[in-house]
Amino acid sequence: MSYEQAIKYLYNLQPIGIKFGLNNTLSLLAHFHNPHQKIKTIHVAGTNGKGSICSMLSSILQSAGYKVGLYTSPHLIDFTERISINGNPIPQSEVASLTEKIRYAINDGDFKANHPTFFEVVTVMALIYFYEQYLDLAIMEVGMGGRLDATNVIQPLMGIISTIALDHQQYLGKSLGHIAQEKAGIIKRGMPVIIGDCHPEILQIISYTCQKMGATLIQAPPLSNAHILHQDLSCQKFEVLCPKESPKQYSISLLGHHQIQNTLTTLTAAKKLNDLLPRQISHAQICKGLTSARWPGRIEVYPGSPLIIIDGAHNPAAAHSLSRFIKELKFLHLTLVIGVMKDKEIDKICQDLVPLAFRIILTRPNIARAALPRDILHILHSQSLLPNSVKVSMVDSIPEAITLAKTQSGLKDIICITGSLYTAGEAKVVLDER
Questions:
Q1: Torsion-angle region of 87 (φ positive above 0: left; ψ -120 to 50: alpha; else: beta)
Q2: Is the bond preceding residue 306 a cis peptide, omega within 30 degrees?
Q3: Is 80 exceeded by the pLDDT of residue 173?
Q4: What is the CATH number of the domain that holds 316?
């Protein structure tokens, strides 16, 4: 099987859709002698920020000399981004080989009534690959929810829960409480659980689950404990005030206030890992890891005139963080390029961003789930989100949208391309090529 054949097979599993439950994943792993039971893992759940936390923590551990696997989703540009070791994506030859082995396992197994999904197969692929590569530990990002997510087959050293907000309500529940209960499903008996600064209702649910499971809950410091020293379009420098400790300074390349909160959660996790791992992680190694960490497609800036920002904000909370970042910049006009999935809360994603725009270009990434530009426009009109002064255009593809945005924008303007990670990924390909 070639890499191209493997990718075609995997993507042909996507129409199966999302099916919660662990049985398929466990059955496939049993065929391969349960590799997930033989590796050390860290499990990261949350609505927003979990990918950034995974990236920063992985970078810190690498700086401390550990061999670290990282499993995240979705990918931004290429499938191999989902599974990496010390920043190196899984080789295409490994994807092809493992896909063929898993396909045979599925054909040999009893899956006729419930065929494994794309995410179940890829999760199994990651766990087999990590085991075969003799890792020190693997960081596993939850795909959706937690309790019934395919990644929840692992028995981790530690759980981390990032920001929880409304998203995927059709699967996880309509309220923050319901969603928090699903995220809390990753909590295993006796393990430490790190949680970021959160709503009291969420903290109460996570705390109750920890008590029930005999798990130790550790809450990261709030954003108010971080004093910003410097911010520009390449980094943020800040110091953290902790009780009974002198202030410590850090620098990150990830932009936006929310990334400082994600860093505080990561720092709390790194500190606790010193109780769980054989080699201590020093302050210098933490600083080096944070400085080195990258997470493309999340408030990623392309310098120039006009300045271009791409961001995969795909829910209201993420869009709010992006709007807060934009408000702090100096510019003449904002050209907002929006491409969003039709199953998302389009009006709520747009409500903080649209009022900032001088002109809007509605488009769609090349994926079946994407909303049509005319449907986005209808939602904006029906919710009275479009001021009369805003100029609106519609184009059918991301490359066309970028060309039009550059043509219409002045040298002192900003172009922001957002609404989905699929939109950000396609924009990144175009901008990197140009």
A1: left
A2: yes
A3: no
A4: 3.90.190.20
Q: Is the dihedral of CA 123, 124, 125, 131 positive or negative?
A: positive
Judgement on whether residues 248 and 314 belong to the same structural domain of the protein: no
Structural Rg of the chain based on CA atoms? 22
CB neighbour burial string for 361-374, b if at least 16 within 10 angstroms, e if fewer: bbbbbeeeebbebe
**Domain's final residue, options 292, 311, 344:** 292
What pLDDT shows up at residue 169?
60
Residues 240 and 333 occupy one common structural domain: no
Domain CATH for 109:
3.40.1190.10
For position 245, what pLDDT does the model report?
Answer: 79
For 256, the 3-state DSSP assignment is coil
Range of the domain at 321: 300-433
The predicted pLDDT at position 145 comes to 82
Residues 6+ apart with CB under 8 A from 399: 426, 430
Q: Are residues 268 and 318 in the same domain?
A: no
Q: Bridge-partner residues for 392, per DSSP?
A: 360
User: Model confidence over 219-265: pLDDT tens digits?
Assistant: 999 999 999 999 999 999 999 987 777 889 999 999 999 999 999 99
Q: Which of 239, 265, 292 is the C-terminal boundary of a domain?
A: 292
The tally of domains found in the chain comes to 2
Mind listing the pLDDT tens digit for each residue in 45-103? 998 899 999 999 999 999 999 999 999 999 999 999 999 999 999 999 999 999 999 99
pLDDT value of residue 158: 97
d(C-alpha 212, C-alpha 163), whole Å:
22
Q: Which two tokens stand for residue 50?
A: 């979990």
pLDDT value at residue 267: 97
Alpha-carbon distance of 423 to 416, in angstroms, equals 11
Q: How buried is 156 (Cβ within 10 angstroms: 0-12 exposed, 13-18 middle, 19+ buried)?
A: buried
Tell me: do 99 and 57 sit in the same domain: yes
